[in-house]
Specification:
- The structure is a single chain.
- The chain has 214 residues and is an alpha+beta fold.
- Helix content is 36%, strand content 26%.
- Strands 1, 2, 6, 8, 11 and 12 form a six-stranded mixed sheet that branches.
- The radius of gyration is 47 Å and the shape is elongated.
Length: 214
């Protein structure tokens, strides 16, 4: 009887152990599946968020680049200028000497065209002598200024030199040949009456850049 009871108790213990093991195994499997599912869902959600953020960034960058390009294009277009043509300018030379030792010839250019134009820079100038020779005039040490002319506006530039009061000047200027800035066509002007004699050679005369006459 004792042997039979011990066997029965042993059988019950083994059955209980197996039952507990089975329960533990089932719980463990359920937890792992849940964690994997949660991890997969989180990973998928993060991936979608990153993809959306990337798309938004790409769209934003594209829009910025287009706007910047348009702005640059507009700025560049606005900075462009049409240079004044010789045929649209009324050009004249006058004596403007401030004293007996300083010679100065003012050359004015009036925009008689129908549109605004630019006369910025140095005009090309040659002085023609009585012996029919032409001498190019050197540029003075000055920085050009922006000179924009609306219809009817005028610009001016000048020739500067020293006056020879000795009466022994070797120069006999008769004409001034003027080519407006950024142009290739010239006009011939008379040397202003009453202008002082040039001291030295024509290479001592200097031309200065244009500026508005206002």
């Amino acid at each position: 009887m004792k042997y039979t009871r011990l066997s029965a108790f042993a059988a019950i213990g083994v059955a209980a152990t197996l039952s507990l093991t089975a329960c533990g195994s089932g719980d463990s499997g359920t937890d792992t599946s849940s964690k994997n599912s949660s991890s997969s869902s989180s990973s998928s959600s993060d991936g979608a968020s990153k993809a959306e953020a990337g798309a938004a960034k790409s769209d934003s960058g594209s829009g910025t680049e287009v706007k910047a390009g348009a702005a640059n294009s507009g700025t560049k277009s606005g900075a462009e200028a049409t240079f004044c043509k010789t045929e649209d300018l009324a050009i004249n030379a006058t004596d403007a000497a401030p004293d007996d030792s300083t010679g100065r010839i003012n050359i004015s250019m009036v925009n008689r065209g129908s549109t605004t134009c630019s006369a910025t820079g140095f005009a090309g100038v040659d002085i023609k002598d009585a012996d029919n020779t032409s001498n190019p005039i050197e540029r003075g040490q000055a920085q050009p200024r922006v000179t924009t002319l609306k219809p009817g506006d005028s610009a001016v530039f000048n020739l500067a030199y020293e006056i020879d009061s000795s009466g022994e000047s070797l120069s006999s200027p008769t004409n001034i040949l003027v080519t407006p800035p950024n142009e290739t066509h010239s006009v011939t002007l008379d040397w202003p009456a009453g202008a002082g004699d040039i001291k030295g050679a024509y290479t001592d005369v200097e031309v200065y850049p244009t500026h508005t006459a206002k």
